[in-house]
Amino acid sequence: MADVDFEQGPEGSRLAYRQDGPADDLGRCGFFWLGGFMSDMKGTKAEALAALARETRRPGLRFDYSGHGQSAGQFTDGTISAWLEQAIHMFILPTGVAPGAVLETGDTFHFAGHLMPTLNSKVAVTVTAPSGVRHLGGGQADSIGYFYDPTDNFTLNEAGLWSVDVRVWHDGQCSGGATVPPYPSGNVLGSQNGRYWFYVVPGSAPRLIVTSPSPGFQRRVDQVQPITITGVISTRAAELSAKLRHSSSAGGSRARSP
């Protein structure tokens, strides 16, 4: 059975998913599982489809809606509209850690996405931890400009601000013929010269309730303006976090006692 990974979905929802089938790209039509009401990706039908993906060497993706299975959230807080939005999100980008994402220690980092123009360009990725440790990855996109290499995945073991440096270049054929040096190049849209950041927090960290800005689109005229985000930590979440830290400390003390 495929391992469970987590993706930050719309509105910060933490969605659990599994990818079945081969690690290589054979260009075959794949499967995308959409669960029913109050069902999850470990159900009989979902497991049967996953087994078929492995047997026929086709890519397969299944996930749990928020409030279902191993995904975060309460079922009673969900809506059909929210679950539909999550399904669209998972179908378009099931494996990429987006700029500004907030993950937890122990989560898996994935880099993936479509290139524009949709060519089989080269990709180089450097992910730097808060401590300065670097994780190198990259390769070549497929024939329709999609890049993902599961061998580049790794577990996030440090809390703090992580950076991702991306470089893309095309040294092959294009509509105008063979490219010549200096080769056409690019990076992630909206990044600073190819660099963007994401955050990793301890799993016991309390959730921040954002009070501003209000949900919606941020409008600009000539340039992008910094956005100040403010919020509060709920008393219940803070108390739970303190209890978890106290229990961990107390457990450690007992373990060191003679």
Mean pLDDT: 80
Shape estimate: globular
Q: Which fold name corresponds to the CATH topology of the largest domain?
A: Immunoglobulin-like
CATH class of the largest domain: Mainly Beta
Please give the count of helices. 3
End-to-end separation: 42 Å
* Structural class designation: alpha+beta
Number of strands: 18
Radius of gyration: 21 Å
Series of H and E elements:
EEEHEHEEEEEEEEEEEEEEH
CATH H-level name of the largest domain... which superfamily?
A: Immunoglobulins
Strand fraction equals 25-35%
Question: How many discrete domains?
Answer: 3
Helix share, percent: 10-25%
- List low-pLDDT spans: 248-258
Question: What is the compact description of this entry?
Answer:
With about 260 residues, this protein is an alpha+beta fold. It has three helices and 18 strands. It has three domains: about 90 residues, Alpha/Beta hydrolase fold, catalytic domain (Rossmann fold, 3-Layer(aba) Sandwich), CATH 3.40.50.1820; about 110 residues, Sandwich (Immunoglobulin-like); about 50 residues, no CATH class.
